[in-house]
Amino acid sequence: GRILTGTMLGMVLAGGAYVSMVDEPIL
């Protein structure tokens, strides 16, 4: 469960950072 949880958290954090970087210049 530790690897899966770490992967999911990494995906969420990376996805949030990606969305923030992409959306900020547009907004």
Query: Low-confidence segments, ≥5 residues, pLDDT <50?
Result: none
Residue-averaged pLDDT, rounded? 80
Count up the helices: 1
Question: Could you give the order of the helices and strands?
Answer: H
Q: What is the helix content?
A: over 70%
User: Which range does the strand content fall in?
Assistant: under 5%
Count of beta strands:
0
How large is the radius of gyration?
12 Å
Reported for the largest beta sheet, the result is: none
Shape: rod-shaped
User: Helix/strand-derived class?
Assistant: mainly alpha
End-to-end distance, in Å?
A: 38 Å
Overview of the structural elements:
It is a single chain. The protein has 27 residues and is mostly helical. It has 1 helix and no strands. It has one helix at 2-26. The longest helix has 25 residues, at 2-26. It starts with a helix and ends with a helix.
